[in-house]
Amino acid sequence: MYRKGEVSYQPIPLPDRVQMPEAEALAASKTFLAQMKTRHSVRQYAPRDVPEALITTCIAAAGSAPSGANHQPWFFAAISNPEMKARIRAAAEDEEREFYAGGAGDEWLAALEPIGTGVSKPHLTEAPWLIVVFAQRWGETEDGTRYKNYYVPESVGIAVGFLIAAIHHAGLVCLEHTPNPMKFLGEMCGRPASEKAMMILPVGYPSDDATVPAVAKRKKPLEQICTVFR
Hints:
Elements: H1 22-36, H2 52-62, E1 74-79, H3 82-103, H4 106-112, H5 123-126, E2 129-136, E3 138-140, E4 146-148, H6 152-169, E5 173-174, H7 184-188, E6 195-204, H8 222-225
Antiparallel strand pairs: 1-2, 2-6, 3-4, 5-6
Helix pairs in contact: 2-6
């Protein structure tokens, strides 16, 4: 985290060592892979409360992500307020009407057809929580001096990956919704002009009749996403 005047490098001993024997490490990695293969983006949520502490603990995990120059250029607004969720849903559906009425090209709409998305976004009010992820484009010190953040999209993307993994690890489900532009989110959540809403994650438990599109189970095999150079 950036603090004015802290500009010198001060190494400390590695505080945590989590290394393990190779066989144990491979087993752990396979266990993690198997768990992440059970993660799904879900649009139908159960009317079941989720404790605030569970949500904030997942956010804390996201906050442990690496970032450019360790500036941690992210902020997470956790929303359970029904009126705020309703406002977000209304704005999202207004944007989607424009999108599906011609704002998106034919190729994009064709790509989305197997996913089954549309204008209606009931998950934005049915999920017990919405987590709005903000990217901090620049920072300010306590005296108002502006400083630059580095690799902001990359850093926030890594943090969101941590967040999604933490949500799944906690037995919850979520869905990735990208606001465009929904500029009111910053004002509604009390965020400064330096921050831009990057993503909204509805979070909760899946409903008993929850479904996922069949195409979502199709993942590229390892040989299509990885090359090993020895």
